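Students often ask why inverse folding is considered easier than folding. One informal answer: many sequences map to the same fold, so there is more than one right answer. In these notes we will look at a single instance of the problem. The structure comes first.
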């Protein structure tokens, strides 16, 4: 495996470990072999196995995103009908659905503080909604200004009760306990904000990324404003699709763009450490079906 391939594999491995929790944004595959790192630093391939399959009634609808919560044994699926459907990952049993969004659902996550039974979703209808999976009822609705879409959201802050959402060139912040909007950052980005994430080991630090190619770092402590709380800006030079943290202290940030370039940054000092122009072909070259089995 070459230098770029090793770096990409290591980044994705640590990212997966960092996000592994009882309630996760994505449903992780079952692994039959434990991952290991060789003495030379290379990563041993994992062996993947299909543990279960679920029969659905989606029809012509298609899936946008999947989220799971092991703590309540629930799998959530967002669909092109603007609905959320829920299943038992162990038995495949259909549990129910949540209906209310009037536009495309961009992100779903079981991430509400101390509430594993609650799932949140954001949508092009300009809202972030919370749903109780015990009765599939909406329990909270946060709305931006008129004609805004909500593309992404994240919980964090020093208290853990700050909800941040990315919209049309704005980063919106609410106090989740009171549903009160506490800040609107509208000068740092010039286009749709596609990602907002809090640093896992520094919950007051917020990363935002956008179609304008900029990745911004904010300090969310105190009364938040861009003049005093924008710490640094990194330029990916093209539209950013996804970002994520990795490294022993989560000091590294991987950044995947919409044209499938992949870069690695030290977000503390804003330096770019790696840039891969064709991430898909590099990943494809290392992929084969020898490590996939049906159990």
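Output (designed amino acids):
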């Amino acid at each position: 495996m070459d230098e770029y391939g090793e770096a990409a594999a290591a980044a994705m491995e640590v990212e997966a470990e960092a996000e592994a929790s009882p309630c996760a944004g994505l449903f992780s595959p079952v692994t039959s072999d434990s991952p290991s790192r060789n003495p030379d630093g290379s990563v041993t391939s994992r062996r993947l196995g299909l543990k279960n399959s679920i029969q659905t009634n989606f029809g012509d609808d298609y899936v946008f995103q999947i989220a799971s919560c092991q703590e309540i044994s629930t799998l959530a699926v967002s669909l092109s009908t603007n609905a959320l459907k829920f299943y038992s990952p162990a038995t495949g049993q259909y549990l129910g659905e949540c209906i209310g969004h009037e536009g495309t659902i961009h992100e779903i996550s079981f991430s509400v503080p101390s509430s594993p039974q609650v799932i949140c979703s954001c949508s092009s209808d300009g809202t972030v909604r919370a749903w109780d999976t015990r009765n599939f009822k909406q329990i909270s609705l946060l709305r931006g200004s008129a004609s805004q879409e909500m593309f992404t959201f994240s919980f964090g802050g020093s208290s853990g009760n700050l909800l941040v959402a990315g919209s049309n060139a704005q980063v919106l912040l609410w106090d989740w306990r009171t549903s009160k909007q506490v800040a609107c950052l509208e000068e740092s980005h010039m286009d749709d904000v596609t990602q907002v994430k809090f640093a896992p080991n520094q919950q007051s630090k917020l990363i935002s990324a956008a179609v304008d190619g900029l990745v911004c770092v904010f300090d969310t402590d105190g009364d938040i404003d861009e003049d005093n709380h924008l710490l640094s800006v990194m330029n990916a030079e093209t539209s950013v699709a996804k970002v994520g943290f990795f490294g022993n202290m989560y000091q590294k940030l991987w950044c995947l763009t919409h044209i499938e370039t992949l870069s690695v940054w030290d977000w503390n000092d804003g330096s770019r450490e790696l840039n891969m122009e064709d991430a898909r072909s590099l990943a494809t070259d290392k992929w084969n079906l020898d490590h996939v089995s049906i159990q």
